[in-house]
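Data availability (excerpt). All sequences and predicted token strings are deposited with the supplementary files. A representative entry, Glutamyl-tRNA reductase, is shown inline so that the format can be inspected without opening the archive.
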Amino acid sequence: MQNKFRAISLSHKSAPVEIREIIALDEATIHALLVKLKDFFSVTDTLILSTCNRTELYYSHELDLSSEIIKLIGLEKGLSSIIDYLEYFKIYNNDREAISHLFKVSMGLEAQVVGDMQISNQVKRAYQASADLGMAGPFLHRLMHTIFFTNKRVVQETAFRDGAASVSYAAVELIEELTSNIFEPRILLIGVGEIGKDVAKNMVHLPNAKVTIANRTLDKAETLGSSMGFDVIPFENVVEAMRESDVIISSIMKSEPFITKNLVKTFDISSYKLFVDLSVPRSIETSIEDVPGVLLYNVDNIRSKASETLENRLASVPKVEQIIEESIDEFYNWKKEMMVSPTINKLKNALEQIRLEEMERFLKNADQKEIEVVERITKSMMQKILKVPVVQLKAACQRNQADGMIEILSDLFDLEKVNEKK
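Structure token line:
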């Protein structure tokens, strides 16, 4: 039975965030899973991808191991009731469907924010983890490099990766643009709800910024701050922190504005201070723009920018899908040829064995010069004999008829028996 490439997926499309958080895998768990999959099931060409929006496992095996693998994930996570989560996993046992899914995930077509740029780096890290443990064979190496090349084509030939398509990323992109002339800009993030948390995660794109977090519940701020390497202050110190910051991002739930014109008038603004209001309802009075040196952007400004980008990305989807299909077809042509390679090698070995046996039989009394002449002649003959079967085998691959020809050649030359003797 031939190995098939398969996939197990739990994502934002199939599971709510509470479930995704339970199933999410850290680096240590991924490493442990890869080792156990190799030792317990002898799987090959394995890739484990775990992000905030998805946990996926790709593998090659002749059998569907999805149930065993999900149970193994539960074991690693200490979940005694992993069976309760089975409905959230989607299983891809069709070879082409699993490959197509990995392409779409890697390009960002399956991302919560279509065209998400972070996913390609996350896929590269997952591939590196597999390669480091010897879990990537010729199949996965070729597949991943085809994906990386496809990603370059998408960037170069479409508008799919242009601009920021999420509010949180668009906000960070705006901050980067407006603080480009400030050395190590001081950024204060107030509120770590869903949007605030996303903004914090996107701050990795501002490596020189000094980020401080304030939240009414200090524990939440400290958890996020420690994972991102940001400073955390008690909420009662937030006004003083605003005075010292170049950028203030407000993402808090409040029935009336938290940052008022009267408050901002007390700040000593030597150059300018940027305020970004991501709250709904708004938590910053629009009148603060009357204060000299104040720049204010609200969620509507930023969402408009993100929506325009998203529309351009969605318009590019058909072209991206076309590029993916072209790449998959190209990969399958290689995969088909790989399928006949073992037979070609067996045939070469069988003919070489016959050649060597006959050389030994008839050249016992020949001198070195005669042996060299016969060596050249017999090798040349062997190559010519091989040429037609090899060409025909590769042509049969393109017609999806390789299985029949492999069987005929194996029977004609008794390849299995010949290679067992070798």
